[in-house]
Specification:
6 helices
């Protein structure tokens, strides 16, 4: 009896096994910053710019890491670089100017640019494992950035409140997504390692 030829294995999306790490990192960074803004009752402009500027710098680095680990392909490399550069630039401007207006304008531009890049990327790559999550966090970034200039007259507390609120929403979305992808990759690993290269038995 001739041996039955094994069915071709379905290759898993490599992003499923890697994207949870930067997603979790972004969730932690955004969550810590968001919680700080909740419990910080009377922030000064100087402290807002130092903490907020540092947040933008770290977020920009993790943002770029996210899109390098997500295996989006070369066509999405430029939007990811632009989004990361906008966030890093907002961090530098906030730390350098140390004014309410500087933080509001730089933060608004950075969040809108980075959010739009993720929103477009999520909508264009609907077959990607993380597309839906990026649509949500992209929309959150757009909304947060769009509100910032309007609360600038209210001072540091309002600016941090809006930025921190968007950060907390992002942390929840990406935290849940990261844990879900981590769980799925852990379940898939034994199945992949156990079947790789093993011939199908024929009765």
């Amino acid at each position: 009896m001739a041996a039955a030829s094994p069915a071709p294995a379905v290759r898993p999306d490599p992003a499923e096994f890697t994207v949870w790490k930067p997603f979790l990192a972004r969730a932690v960074v955004s969550g810590v910053f968001g919680l700080m803004t909740i419990f910080w009752l009377e922030p000064s402009t100087l402290s807002m710019c130092i903490i907020g500027g540092s947040y933008f710098l770290v977020l920009g680095a993790v943002y770029l890491w996210t899109h390098r680990m997500a295996h989006w392909g070369k066509r999405f490399g430029v939007p990811a670089a632009i989004g990361a550069a906008a966030l890093l630039g907002a961090g530098v401007v906030s730390l350098a100017l140390r004014t309410d207006a500087g933080f509001a304008i730089a933060g608004a531009v950075a969040l809108v640019v980075a959010g739009a890049a993720e929103l477009v990327r999520g909508l264009a790559g609907r077959g990607h494992v993380a597309a839906r999550d990026l649509v949500v966090v992209g929309a959150v970034g757009l909304g947060t950035g769009g509100i910032l200039p309007f609360v600038e007259p209210l001072g540091a507390h309002a600016l941090l409140g809006v930025t921190g609120g968007g950060a907390l929403l992002t942390a929840v979305v990406l935290g849940i997504a990261a844990l879900s992808y981590r769980h799925d990759s852990a379940l898939s690993a034994p199945r992949r390692s156990g079947t790789q290269g093993a011939p199908d038995p024929v009765s």
